[in-house]
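Problem 12. The chain below contains 548 residues. Write out its predicted structure in token notation.
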Amino acid sequence: MIKSFITFLLLTFSVALWAQTTNQEVLNMNKPERVEWFRDLGFGMFIHFSFDSQLGIVISHSMVGASEDYQNRYINELPKTFNPKDFDAKKIATLAKLAGMKYIVFTTKHHSGFCMWDTETTDFNITNTPYKKDLLEEFVEATREAGLAVGFYFSPEDFHFLHENGLEIRRTNINDIPQHLMNKYVELNELQTIELMAKYGDIDILFYDGGEGTLLEKCKLVAWELHPDVVITRGAMETPEQTVPGTTVTDPWEACLTMGTQWAYKPANETYKTGVQLMDILVETRAKGGNQLLNIGPKPNGAVAEEQENLLREIAAWNFVNGEAIEATKPWIIPNEENIWFTWKPEEKTLYAILTKQAEWPRGERREFILKSVKSTENTNVEVLGQSGKRVEYMPEINATTFFKQEENGIHISCVRAQRLYNNQKWNYPLVLKITNAEPAFVPPVVETGEAEIIQSGGTSYVQFNGSIVEQGDEENLKVCFQYRPLPEFTDALISNEWTETKNLEIDDNFFMFRLPVKNKKITYQYRTVAKHPNANVYGKYKTISIN
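Solution.
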């Protein structure tokens, strides 16, 4: 009965939907109001989980370039021992909610083609394992019960389909597949999308991964036709992986991030980021206008790895105090002043100054900060989130009040770390200042990082960095330069802040450049523009150039 209904839907939608596109252009039918709803969520959980978690290896990708023997055993033998009997969807949803996450995105089908739901489209699914049940259904019910938005990750690329049809397993050159097989490939993905959108109620978010062109676009069309309110992230907006942009981005974007080095569970030789690092990345993401999707990879039995649960609870403690600085916020006029990052609620004129890199701030100690981008008004108030400002436990001699004063060079704030959250009284996480009725203190410039080029001059090779001033702001004598560095490894890119800065550069008709002699013939540089306003440095986007 279900199969005939799905077939009917497929026949009804397929021709009409594809007729809406010309030349298979990339469509974006996300509703603007739903995109704003999504952006206000701010923070979500990603779950990478499949049957190959049993081996602790990269999810799906080991099939590419693998021997026929490996592929056969992977497809036919490995599912026989997959039994995630300890998967507790309610516990995972509770952990996500405590950590301040507002949505969860689950891998319904990764590139391997293995389906984590009871599908009629293929036997390569979780009901044909010792687990036998529809794990996706459990996830959806628990996530909704927790009041969180439901998201599905789905890969239109399907290695199992390629293998079954005698095609080489690969992620590139999929458009050279014979047309009769491509028609079957597209139909499989359409049927699976219809199942996912029809069987589990309203799905809030879809994250498509791979299959650019026909495979992807037809899936998107089917999803939007069945549920017009669904927000498609990857496939319709920027979704940087393991990185965040170099500056504020006005369009919607969602960064996805691993806690360690791998998306799926990695039992050996895994290196996890610290809780402080994960919080700093979350803060930077929100300050630059993006959403963050933080990943966990459950163990083969379905349980959350202890290291990952501990990190979530570490984030949860911080969120319980400071969550209002993350949820439903917008970017400020600049994302940061050095290690102080900003989020903003314009309707309330409330600014949050998030004080990162404040390690070893003893409880009861007073520290002072100057915010040069902020101007107070007669109705401004400043407080430390989570603190009453009236008492420091066991320290009656300490005045816990937060003071502020507007000076010519910015608002001066003096505050105390008063709240005791750990028994050892240490708290190395960001404190957050809540500043009400705030106003911008200046008009920042806007700079653009141009494409770099390799040039020859006087027998020497140079990398030429190019940049431009898009908007001058309110400073006539703006100074500009570049910062550059060897491109960090992807696991280090988010936590490394080591840059080499050039001298201040001459500006010619809003353009400027710097030439760096090439000493290493095989290197990739990451670089960005910097505008030095008297109140704060303003940065352009990250760009890279490779020298071979």
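Discussion. Residues 14-23 have pLDDT under 50 and may be disordered. Students who got a different answer should revisit the alignment rule from Section 12.3.
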